[in-house]
Amino acid sequence: MTEPPLTEAEIVEAERELGVSLPGEYRAYLREVSAGGALLRLERTGRGWWWAGNNEGRRELLAIPFPHPDSYAEADHELMAREPQADAFEDDAAYREARCAWDDEADRFEDLKTAGAVVIQEHGCGFSTLLALTGSLAGTVWWDGRATCDRIVPLSLDHVGGARPIRFGEWLDLGSWALLPPGWGPSLPSSPVVHR
Are 139 and 132 contacting, i.e. CB atoms less than 8 angstroms apart? Predict the structure, then answer.
């Protein structure tokens, strides 16, 4: 069953509470089509407006601009180069302490990779489709493939020509699987296309 659309008043309330202006095409979908449908539902919860299936602990990251993956590639490599190795420490306690501190830093860094975005579809096996809500990439749709290759990639109509991230309105008619870079396609049936 498709959830009914949200009213303009509900959308305004959600935006005010979340501290973001929702991208126009997504806002129109919420108002004219559904609060969820084939997407994860934007709903009023006991703690306020939030998306079903998304970690509510990420609220503080929503207003931070969604970063292009190229913007943190160097920092990612630098972090990995600093990963503590047990043989570099004189005792297990010192290694465990260093490892714990590094794990905390790495977890925070991973969280920042999807700051300003929410999961709008889950695809299983740790894969999901992200909608950027803030920053210069607001309104674009991305594939979170970190479960297998540690990468977030744009969903695009032209991966050979620069991979311009597709906008939410374009994505609605195509779905995520059709917009992945070459070599990403599943051998399973594609995820449902969201028709307007």
Answer: yes
Secondary structure class of 123 (helix, strand, coil): strand
Look at the domain 8-66+114-179 and name its fold: SMI1/KNR4-like (3.40.1580)
Q: Which helix (H) or strand (E) is 143 found in, with range?
A: strand 141-144
Query: Quick one: tokens of 148?
Result: 């297998």
Q: Which residues of 24-51 are buried (b: 16+ CB within 10 A; e: fewer)?
A: ebbbbbbbebbbbbbbbbbeeeeeebbb
Gyration radius (Cα) of the chain, Å: 19
Residue 193 has pLDDT above 90, yes or no: no
pTM greater than 0.85 (yes/no): yes
When mean pLDDT is compared across 88-92, 97-101, 145-149, the lowest value belongs to: 145-149
User: Any idea where the domains of the chain sit in the sequence?
Assistant: 8-66+114-179, 69-113
Q: What is the pLDDT of residue 13?
A: 98
User: Which alpha helices (H) appear in the chain, and where do they start and end?
Assistant: 8-18, 24-32, 73-81, 92-113, 146-149, 168-174
Check if the beta carbon of residue 29 is closer than 8 Å to that of residue 168: yes
- pLDDT, one tens digit per residue, over 143-159 is 999 988 889 999 999 98
